[in-house]
Amino acid sequence: MKNYRTTYSFFTLLVVMMLTVTSCTDLEPELYSDLTTKNAYGTESDIDAALTGVYSKLNPYPNDAWLYYAGYLVMTTDYSTDMGFSTAAGDPTKLSNFTYDDNNRYFRLNWQTMYQVISNANILLSEIEDVEMDETKKNQIMAQARFLRALSYRDLTDGWGPVPLITDAKNPTETLDFPLSSVEEVDAQIISDCKFAIDNLPETWSMETGLARATKGAALTLLGKVYMRAHDYTNAKTYIDQVLQLRDKGVYQLNPDFKNEWSDSNKMDMGLIFGILHEAAQNGGEIANHFGPTDHPVVQNRWQYYAVSLQFWRKYADSDPRKEFYYYNYEGASPRDATTTHGFYYMMPAAGQNIPPNDTTKLLPNVATKKYSYEMVSNSYMDGRTIQIFRLADVILCKAEIENALNGPGAALPYINEVRVRAGAPALGSSADFPTPGSKDQMIDALVNERGYELVFEYQRRADLIRLGKFVEVCNTYLEKRGLSPVVTENMRYFPYPLEEARIHDEMSAANVNRLP
C-alpha cells in the first residue's frame, strides 16, 4: 500500500474500465495503464480513460474489490456505532467494541483509497484544459471529477475532521507534513465542486453514455448533506428540495416494495440517485461475501464478516417488515457431521438467551442483512450487486430532518411517514404504540431510529448520530447492553489519523492523543 506521500500524487494511474462509465449492457472491462502527467492526456479518449480511473477507486476492481464503497467504508461509518457487530477477531471487533487504535487497517485503507480518488481527480483536472474536445463534454467530465473529489473529501472529513486539502497535482516531495485544513475550509471546496457539478451535469445519462455516472441529482444530494452536517438547514433545504423536484419530474421514484430496491435483477432502481453497478461475470464485487449469511441454504458460501448487532435489530417494531429483511431462523446447508444430512438450525435468540435449546441449534451472535444478497441472480464468488451510495428514501428522510429543524415536527411528519409507510411500517401518529412526535427533540429521536431502520449499512449511521447529537448517548447505551464499559466521548467523534500518516505528520500525531478510546 502507498504511504502518505505517494498516496496524494499517484502519478502512475491504473485505469480500469468498469460499468460506471459504460452502458448497462456493455460490461467488458478495458485496461489502461502507464498514464502519467507527462504523456497520458493527448486525446479525448485519454481523458475518458482517466475519468474511469477516478470512478474506479470508489470500488477497486479486480484485485481490491472490498475497498472503500465496496465494503470497507461500512466499517468506519456503521460498525463504530450501535449497528455493526463482528465475530471476526482483530480490527472489525475492535471497531464494534470501541477498542480501536490508530493502527486499525480500516482507517489506513479507507484513508488511502479516498486520497487516491482525490489524486486521480486532481491529475485529470490539471490536464484536461490542454486537450481539444467539445466544451460541453469537457465541462461534464470536469464536473464528474469534481463531484467524486467532493464525495471523497466529505467522507474524509466525516471520519477525521481536519485533513490535508489538496486540489492540484502535487509532487510527492511537496506533500510531506502538508498542513491540515479545517472542516470549514474543506467544506468550502466541496461546495464549490458540487455547485460546478450541479451546473454542468445532466439529470440523466443515456444508455450509450453510461447509466451509473454522477448526475445533477447526485451533486444536489451531496451538497444538501454537507450543509446538513454544518447544521445549515436553510441552505440544505434549497438543494434537497431540488432533488425532490426531480422526483416530481419523474427522474426518481420510490419502489413500492422496499425489498425490490435490493433485488439483483433490479440493478437500476428508480430510487437510485448515485451508486456503483456490477455484473458478476465481468466486473463483479465482493460485497455479498462480506454481508451474506453463513451456511445459508440459498445464499451459500458467504462469510457474514460484517453483520448487524442483535441490540440494533431488536429496536425494530415487530410490525415493521424491515425487521424481517435479515437472515435468521434457518437450517444450514452443511451437514452437522458425517452421520447426518441436516445442518444446524441458526436461531435468533431472545434477549438474554445465551444457551441453545438443543445440540442441533446454534444461537446467532449477530444477524446478516439481506440488502447485499437479496434475490441473487448469480451465486458466484464475485457478485453483481448494485452498491447504493445515494438514494431517494435517504433524501426524503433528509427533508424530514430539515423541516423539523426549520418548522417543527408537524412539518417533518409527512416525510418520515412516507418512508415508513412505503416499508409497510405503521405511520407515526397511527396508534398509541406509534405516537406523533410532539417536539423537535422527539422528532430527532424518531429520525435517529428511522434513518437506522431504513439505511442499515449504507454508510450513514455514524454521521447521522453525530449530526443529530446522539453519538455518545446511543453508542454508550449499546455498549452497556452488551456488558461493556461506556467509553465513548465527544472526542471520539473523529477517528485517530492512521498511524503511518501520523508518524510523519506532527499535527496528526498531536491530535491522536485525544481521539483514542
UniProtKB/TrEMBL annotation:
Give the signal sequence positions: 1-23
**Where does it live in the cell?**
Cell outer membrane
Where would I find the SusD-like N-terminal domain in this sequence? 75-228
* Keyword Nucleotide-binding in record: no
Question: Would I find Membrane among this entry's keywords?
Answer: yes
- Gene Ontology cellular component list: cell outer membrane
Keywords, ordered alphabetically: Cell outer membrane, Membrane, Signal, TPR repeat
Q: What is its main location?
A: membrane
User: Which residues belong to any copy of the RagB/SusD domain?
Assistant: 300-473
Q: Where are the TPR repeats?
A: 217-250
Which family does the similarity line name?
A: Belongs to the SusD family.
| Protein known as | RagB/SusD family nutrient uptake outer membrane protein
Q: Which organism is it from?
A: Cerina litoralis
